[in-house]
């Protein structure tokens, strides 16, 4: 049943207050009102309720007012212990678990080497169950409750149905993982594409706030993408949109990890670069399909030091990336294309060929004014985004629980 | 200044009533209320105001109620004479002018052969001025006023600034045409990409109502596209999104009309098919860059009749189209891809190769469940869409004029 309109606006205002406190840290009540266009009476009433529910706390300002006049304003802030969320990032051969508090800060992070491609769907469920249980046993006593879980996965997911449709990290398909975790941990479970988590972090940065149509390309083992349209991730009909890595550079070209030929990923991903390099160089033996960070850094350094074979390989990767980005410009005409991911380590060796390919592919009118920039990689970015998205998704739930308890 | 909320909802309800009458034709007041969730008292008050302003008329139902009981319901309908709009479709070597009445029906249509590529921006302005003036002199006496003009143009336009950025029909660029026409004709001027006009007509059809993410590809002299996301045309940062024809099939491949190489258009457009055919056949002489409809029908017929060279050319066009659509599926994951435009005449000769290329390009998980269909071409579809969009854009203006006159 729909709430009466005054309850709806009370609810929206309460959500706005919580999100402002999460974005800005401690804020005085009067500023909370001004920032959200809410009357001071309403802010006072909302903050009284949130204080009583333990979702926020009060603290005095650290310094008196510079003018020396007036009473220092009391600041309110989120109570970080009010709840926590767990974000699990699932990528090839690695699982990262991060615990975030109610204010959005990372409180704990751990990495596990796991041969992900050897897992069955049941194995993955058991593994996640075990890892989340362990982290909860260690961390949860600091928090009032576990509000939610975010699972950030490389590949195609349906956020709506909570199903991993297809991931390069996994050998099985169509696994309805969210429902099982929700049942096990009695909390909401959000399933997200890893690139969308990263895009949500980047889109919040002041540098990119004028870019409502933002494309984020993630270079790495595979190549991922997130497309934000008016700031919202575009998912498509069943969650498989923005699969830039499998758009085409050369029909019938190099073999891709997906099994088809000529994908951008088959030229510009880590495994593609390593495969091309192994034709030219005596590389230390290893798993050529999953080169290590150290191996990739060695290759990149050789290209940057002027090794002609390595330069050609990175230039061809840049050309594939450039032709792919040309299609993105022609089809999405975004404000900004941001290139990041661990593979951005090799961007300096690719970018001249990439820009050349874009100019070669598109007339100026279709090239447009889109900015194309790279952005330093932070391996925690995915989980930071996942925590923010999980908190955002569970705020509504937190409020409905509080409302139920205040009614009872 | 924002209207007080009761005025805002009155205004929104009035717009909803007008649009329901345009979509459905004559409707009883009680049904207008039910269809829009408006109380009968409000519908009575709104329709009284619209009647007084001459925007709607009353008519008795044509037959008594089948039950024979009760008084027959009086229907209200839009007054078609309340206003008219003019849509001008500008394509290579042709200008079409259509007059639509306030109910959205086409009242007049005319075509003019014009060597569009020989026009300067001033020439185009003079030509449009002359053609619109003539059609208004002939038609406008039937209507209370000219509410708006829609200019539907092949190519890249900025609807926001009213500028034709780049059109294959024109040799000049960046022409701010809307402001000049608005000044000349004292009405609102809407500048639209022709494919968006067509998509707006198709999206309204019952067959496609479950397809909020709809891609329409227009084959013809060039290749255009419209992408509707949640039913709204996606325009990108400056209006040059959805340029499918200039996404790439083969880097460094066939020469495109844009001046670059390897675009989908350079394989699957009319001029590309005709150019490829002229290498194999002794075709009647003519303007190979702008083959006529009759010439294209001859080529298509030869392919369908089993001529091996023509079959190869149409299959290669189908393959280019298929690889292009594979990128659309990977990047947009739409509910439906609809292929139309005059070039759909050759679709039967292309489609086997097209489907083969899509399967070749994408694994099943990325191919997804997107329907890919063709749709018969109607050369008046662009203008029908332009009239609907112009009326939609000017309804708000009609109401504010009526409100101003009812206040004065």
Automatic annotation (TrEMBL), chains A, B:
InterPro entries: ATPase_NBD, ROK, WH-like_DNA-bd_sf, WH_DNA-bd_sf. Pfam families: ROK. It comes from the Bacteria. Transmembrane segments: none annotated. This is Xyl repressor. It comes from Vreelandella sulfidaeris. The lineage of its organism: Bacteria, Pseudomonadati, Pseudomonadota, Gammaproteobacteria, Oceanospirillales.
């Amino acid at each position: 049943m729909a709430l009466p309109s005054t309850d709806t606006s009370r609810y929206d205002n309460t959500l706005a207050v919580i999100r402002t406190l999460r974005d800005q840290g401690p804020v005085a009540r009067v500023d909370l009102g001004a920032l959200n266009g809410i009357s001071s009476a309403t802010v006072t009433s909302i903050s009284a309720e949130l204080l009583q529910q333990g979702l926020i706390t009060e603290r005095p300002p650290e310094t008196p007012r510079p003018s020396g006049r007036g009473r220092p304003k009391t600041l309110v802030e989120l109570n970080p212990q009010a709840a926590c969320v767990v974000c699990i990032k699932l990528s090839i051969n690695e699982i990262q678990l991060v615990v975030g508090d109610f204010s959005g800060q990372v409180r704990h992070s751990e990495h596990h080497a796991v041969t992900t491609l050897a897992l069955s769907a049941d194995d993955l469920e058991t593994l996640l169950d075990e890892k989340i249980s362990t982290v909860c046993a260690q961390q949860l006593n600091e928090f009032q409750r576990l509000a939610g879980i975010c699972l950030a996965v490389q590949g195609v997911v349906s956020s709506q149905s909570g199903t991993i449709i297809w991931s390069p990290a996994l050998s099985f398909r169509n696994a309805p993982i969210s429902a099982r975790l929700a049942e096990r941990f009695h909390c909401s479970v959000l399933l997200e594409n890893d690139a969308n988590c990263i895009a949500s972090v980047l889109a919040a940065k002041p540098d990119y706030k004028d870019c409502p149509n933002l494309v984020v390309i993630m270079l790495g083992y595979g190549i991922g993408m997130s497309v934000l349209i008016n700031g919202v991730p575009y998912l498509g009909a069943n969650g498989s949109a923005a699969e830039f890595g499998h758009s085409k550079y050369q029909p019938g070209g190099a073999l891709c990890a997906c099994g088809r030929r000529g994908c951008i990923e088959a030229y510009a991903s880590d495994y593609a670069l390593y495969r091309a390099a192994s034709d030219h160089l005596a590389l230390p033996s290893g798993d050529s399909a999953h080169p290590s960070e150290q191996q990739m850094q060695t290759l990149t350094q050789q290209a940057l030091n002027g090794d002609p074979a390595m330069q050609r390989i990175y230039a061809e990767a840049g050309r594939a990336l450039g032709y792919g980005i040309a299609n993105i410009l022609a089809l999405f005409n975004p404000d900004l294309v941001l290139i990041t991911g661990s593979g951005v380590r090799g961007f300096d060796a690719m970018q001249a060929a990439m820009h050349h390919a874009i100019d070669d592919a598109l007339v100026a009118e279709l090239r447009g004014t889109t900015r194309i920039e790279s952005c330093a990689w932070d391996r925690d970015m995915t989980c930071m985004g996942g925590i923010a998205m999980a908190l955002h998704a569970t705020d509504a739930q937190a409020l409905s629980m509080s409302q139920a308890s205040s009614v009872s």
